[in-house]
Amino acid sequence: MSIKVRIPTPLRKLTNGSDEVSATGRNVGEIIEDLEKAYPGLKERICEGDGKLRRFVNIYLNDEDIRFKNNLETELKENDELSIIPAIAGGAA
Amino acid sequence: MSYMKALKCRECGKEYPKEALHVCELCFGPLEVAYEYEKIKGVLTREVIEKRAPNMWRYKELLPIDGEPTVGAQVGYTPLVKADNLAKALGVKEIYIKNDAVNYPTLSFKDRVVSVALSRARELGFKIAACASTGNLANSVAANAAAAGMESFVFIPSDLEQTKIVGTLVYGGTVVGIKGTYDEVNRLCSEIAGKYGWAFVNINIRPYYAEGSKTFGYEIAEQLGWKLPQNIVVPMAGGSLITKIHKAFKELSILGFVGPVTTKVFGAQAAGCSPIINAVKEGTELIRPVNKPNTIAKSLAIGNPADGYYSAKVMRESGGWGENVTDEEIIDSMKLLAETEGIFAETAGGVTLGSARKLIDSGRISRDESIVVCVTGNGLKTQEALAGKINPPTIINARLQEFDDLVKAGGKEYAVRA
């Protein structure tokens, strides 16, 4: 299913400036794979080499940190919204 | 002469120039200052340090500025008190209080980090100093900025202790009270820092600022005769101090000033705001933020600690542990410290000593080993917490008879002159 994903300022260079994009997947991990296909290079920024979410990147599913749900396996349903948010707020870099 | 090599990401290791940067643009990890220890070894010895003035800049080669310090030249070198009365009360052999309640000029350890942050900010060309604060940092930024001739903007939760608000306003900078928690203040400040480009000491200047805390650790080692304590108990808000004290010990070891680091590092938080202690006790790397901190230890009321992960790691890897205490236990320990050692620590000091007591009682800290308890702020700033908790003075008229009656009522006999 198609899910809305909010993109933080530092990653918008990869999404051609968009602050919100759509991606398809049954869980958060699949959404990230789908985002990578549409916006190559994005996965590397938010995931370690072994695919785990980087420590200082938070992903919120409707305002709840997925680390306290089922992490990348957290399942999604219609009208869910994901937000990618760096743990440490940065400047405009 | 600077021995600061670069800024380096703690997560992925990517290096950055020594500018006002704090987040890795690749992996979003925090940046930290890297030094050229081999070069420092060539110029800095214990003897060189011992000959210098008693302030935190005696370790300047290990601090992140390019030139000489221009802010806070007198900060640091606070007493390390061998607390024998307290040791007796607790049934331990050797306990020390590192007393930053008397740090100069604003009576908390924050003067250390602020003097480094503002010295560096001036080197980078900033004219305006700012911060998000639970109080002590507010006092320190306002005071040190005033002395340095910098304009200041200080952002605090609006419900702070009155003394901490007055002790910020008096320096004449702009103080903004935000209706919300510290974490909400901090989030707003990140946006303001991005938009206005000021030197927010705990945001865009954070890599430099945080290094100032190392001097707390250097001083403990030097004051113990270039030895490290077997145990140290440190209060945690954002969790930066505990990691920097450990870093300081490791650096002194790298330089050969002390032996290998075997100190067990313990963290302390208030029960009403224990995100890091909870993680340590549950054995998880995940720090679950506390949305609504509720404790009289307002200086430690940070629900989403920036260095939570690293501070939990230091406790775990050093063989330490963490503990937390209720408001009643905080006050009880503030009183114990005052009554045994004549030291009036702020609520955070009660958190630290209270946690130390629990760690001793549970056997996590051995009664036979040396213990350092870190007091980071002054009790005069958090007097509200003691309202109704200590006996008021007895009021009498200015007549000797009334005093005699008072003594009699007290039941204790005193020798009197005929």
Describe the overall structure:
By secondary structure, chain A is of the alpha+beta class. Chain A has one domain (2-86): Beta-grasp domain (Ubiquitin-like (UB roll), Roll). Chain A has two helices and five strands, in the order E-E-H-H-E-E-E. Chain A has a five-stranded mixed β-sheet with strand order 2-1-5-3-4, covered by helices on one side. The longest helix of chain A has 11 residues, at 28-38. Chain A is globular and about 30 Å long. With 418 residues, chain B is an alpha/beta fold. Chain B has a domain at 80-106 and 212-386: 3-Layer(aba) Sandwich (Rossmann fold). Helix content of chain B is 39%, strand content 15%. Chain B has helices at 37-43, 46-51, 84-90, 110-123, 136-148, 162-169, 182-196, 206-211, 214-223, 240-254, 275-282, 308-318, 327-341, 347-361, 400-410, and strands at 4-9, 15-16, 31-35, 80-82, 94-99, 128-132, 151-157, 174-178, 199-200, 231-235, 264-270, 322-325, 370-375. Chain B has a six-stranded mixed β-sheet, with helices on both faces. Chain B has a four-stranded parallel β-sheet with strand order 8-7-6-9. Chain B is globular. The model of chain B has no long low-confidence stretch (mean pLDDT 96). The chains are: A alpha+beta (93), B alpha/beta (418). The interface between A and B is medium-sized, with 16 and 22 residues.
Topology:
The complex is a heterodimer of chains A (93) and B (418).
Chain A: E1 2-6, E2 20-24, H1 28-38, H2 42-46, E3 57-61, E4 64-65, E5 81-86
Parallel strand pairs in A: 1-5
Antiparallel strand pairs in A: 1-2, 3-4, 3-5
Chain B: E1 4-9, E2 15-16, E3 31-35, H1 37-43, H2 46-51, E4 80-82, H3 84-90, E5 94-99, H4 110-123, E6 128-132, H5 136-148, E7 151-157, H6 162-169, E8 174-178, H7 182-196, E9 199-200, H8 206-211, H9 214-223, E10 231-235, H10 240-254, E11 264-270, H11 275-282, H12 308-318, E12 322-325, H13 327-341, H14 347-361, E13 370-375, H15 400-410
Parallel strand pairs in B: 5-13, 6-7, 6-9, 7-8, 10-11, 10-13, 11-12
Antiparallel strand pairs in B: 1-2, 1-3, 4-5
Helix pairs in contact in B: 3-13, 4-5, 5-6, 9-10, 10-12, 11-12, 13-14
